[in-house]
Each structure stands twice: as C-alpha cells, then as structure tokens.
Design a protein that fits this description.
The protein has 367 residues and is mostly helical. The chain is 47% helix and 11% strand. The protein has 3 domains: 56 residues, no CATH class; 85 residues; 164 residues, Intergrase catalytic core (hpI Integrase, Chain A), CATH 1.10.443. The longest helix has 20 residues.
Length: 367
C-alpha cells in the first residue's frame, strides 16, 4: 500500500498528521522509480485518488508527466528567463553566483524532486563546517535562492511541490557608530578631496552605492536637499535598494561641503580625476586614512550610515522619520536604533503624573 498517514512533531512538540503517497514502481525494462507526493487536500480519499493517477501515468495509461529536470539544468532557465525579467542586474548576478558557486556543485546530478528536507539540512551542515564555514545569514541567503527556484519550478509545472525548509537562527545584527565628537573628528581628519563624501555619509545616511551614483542633477543646493534616485551595485547603476527613491534634506554642514566640492569633471558628484565612476574598493582607503588621522578605529562606509541614524534618534527624531530618511523598507529595520532614545520611555511614564496633577496631588478625580 503506497498511501499512508505520517505523524510528526512540530517545533512546539505537537503531533501533526498528513497523508502522502509513496510509490516504488518498477518499469517493464527493470528500471525502478520512486515517487513521493503529498495531496493538496489532506484526506485519505484524495491520497488514494492521487495514487491512482500516478500509477496510471507510470503504466502509460494516461498523459505522461513531464520529466523533472536536474537542478543544474533548471538553474540556467531560472536565471535566464525568470531572474533577468524580474530582478535588477545586481540581483541576477547574486543569484547566478549563489547557484554556480554553491547550490549547483552541492546538488549536482539531482533532480528537483530529489531535493528534500534531509538534503537541504545536509547542505546547511556542509556550509556551517568545512575549511571555509559560512555564517548562518549567508546560508539562509542561499536557501532563499533555492526556495525561489523551486517555487518557480512549481509555477512552471516542472515540479509538484516545494519541500519544507528550516531556516538557521541568525543573531540580531550588531552595529557600530561614531559618537558626536568622533564624527566631527573623522570629518576633520579626511583628505580634502574625500571630505565631502565622508561628510555626506555621516550627514545624509546614504549607502556607499548611493553616494557613488549621486549626480549633480539629484542635488538642489538652493532648496538644501538631495534625491536618492539611483545606486551602484556590482559596478552597475540601477535603482536604490528597495526600488524606491527618497528625498533627504541637507544639513548646513553637508550643504557647505557640497558647495566647496562643486566641479565640472562629470555629472557624478563623486568621481575619479577623469570623471569616471569610482570603484567601491578604492573608497575604503581614504576612509581608513581619515579614521587613522582622527585617532579612531578602522571602519567601513556603512558605519557612517549607522552614525547618521543613531544621531537622529539620540536627538529625539521619531523612528518613522528615521525610517523614511534611511529608506528602510520596514519599521522593524529602524527599530534597531530604538534603544538609543531612552528619554522617550521616561517622558512616556512622566505623562502619567500629568494626568494626576490635573485632578490634584496623585489622586485622579472621579468622572
């Protein structure tokens, strides 16, 4: 009997039952084929109906089911047909790299329907160990690509269902930022030709890719604001992260820095001496040099973005406003800075005394 009900325990320890079909079929030529499928309707009758359909197909008495492709073959279709149409060029490159360097080598020779939970768990274990272990977050990023590939295979009728995925637990990200005095020292320690870019990183919170793609037409010196309309990723200019533009006001310090930096070499605000796009890699050395001259720790450009958000929250700016200025897709991303505003909680509790004061010395008046 190939129809059975399996019982498992979920993460809460509760028993979960589900019907499934598990067929071990031997073809007339001696070749064996095993098919495991779960009916969409979880009843015994639905499972038995699915069993009859599968056996009929295997025996040649009905339409042959499409051959499930190998992962390495479908990965090419996924990148060239799905990703190039639905993702930004930088995202296409990322998906291609994850597939070519990690997923395809590990699952090579396997059909999509052979990639089950056990094999996915084995992939996680192989990436956590080994000579070059990867972080849980990076492994989860790989699994996201695999999950999307399998979702697309189901949509295209190349696969019956997507197996269960279990994500690795990722610790909450920690971030570094400069305090107010350190930020001023960093600006003072910057080389003249890099001072404007470092100032804008601290005073606008733009990502390094957004700084590199910033054009003079995106900057309004009279109205004292700039518009984030594009960004550089993997050497390509595209839309900002999240696909949405945003407007960021310029502080007096940022405005003065831009005025002093004005040039006619290129339409780009920050460029090389020939007016060409700067490479991300060549931007780390001037920042490290500025940090060293200021007597500060060596940091990357994203610390400047964290500093911008942290200073806003510490000055009492609402988290919603910070979210909009940072271009965060969700408020949860901005909440990591909430602990920097302890006065908010004190002021909230202090409001209780205000209500009591209206009715007199700690006793609320009866309505």
């Amino acid at each position: 009997m190939s129809v059975r009900q399996r019982t498992r325990r979920n993460k809460d320890g509760q028993e979960c039952k589900r019907w499934m079909v598990d067929i071990d079929y031997q073809h007339p030529d001696g070749r064996r084929e095993r098919i495991r499928q779960i009916p969409r309707v979880q009843t015994r009758r639905a499972a038995e109906q699915l069993e009859r359909e599968l056996l009929n197909q295997l025996a040649g008495g009905g339409p042959r089911r499409a051959e499930v492709p190998l992962l390495e073959d479908f990965a090419k279709e996924f990148v060239t047909i799905y990703a190039t149409v639905n993702n930004k060029p930088s995202e296409v490159d990322t998906k291609r790299d994850v597939l070519d360097q990690h997923l395809v080598p590990h699952f090579k020779g396997l059909r999509l329907d052979a990639i089950d939970l056990r094999k996915i768990e084995a992939y996680k274990a192989s990436k956590l160990g080994g000579e070059k272990p990867l972080s849980p977050k990076t492994i989860n990023n790989h699994l996201t690509v695999l999950r999307k590939l399998l979702d697309v295979a189901v949509e295209w009728k190349r696969l019956s269902h997507v197996p269960k995925f279990k994500w690795l637990k990722v610790p909450k990200p920690r971030f570094d930022f400069f305090d107010f005095d350190e930020a001023e020292r960093l600006i003072a320690g910057a080389a003249p030709e890099w001072r404007c870019m470092i100032t804008l990183g601290l005073r606008t919170g733009l990502r390094i890719g957004e700084l590199l793609a910033l054009r003079w037409e995106d900057v309004d010196l009279r109205a004292a604001h700039l518009n984030v309309r594009q960004a550089v990723a993997r050497g390509r200019i595209g839309t900002p992260k999240g696909g949405r533009s945003r407007e960021v006001p310029l502080s007096p310090q940022a405005l003065d820095a831009l005025k002093a930096h004005r040039h006619l070499r290129s339409k780009l605000v920050f460029c090389d001496p020939k007016g060409e796009l700067l490479a991300r890699g060549e931007c780390k050395w001037p920042l490290w040099s500025a940090s060293r001259r200021a007597g500060l720790r060596q940091v990357g450009w994203h610390v400047l973005r964290h500093t911008f958000a942290s200073h806003l929250v510490m000055r009492g700016v609402s988290l919603k406003a910070v979210q909009e200025l940072m271009g965060h897709a969700t408020i949860e991303m901005t909440m990591r800075y909430a602990h920097l505003a302890p006065s908010v909680h004190r002021e909230a509790v202090a409001l209780l005394d205000g209500a009591a004061a209206i009715s007199g010395r700690g006793t609320l008046a009866a309505p």
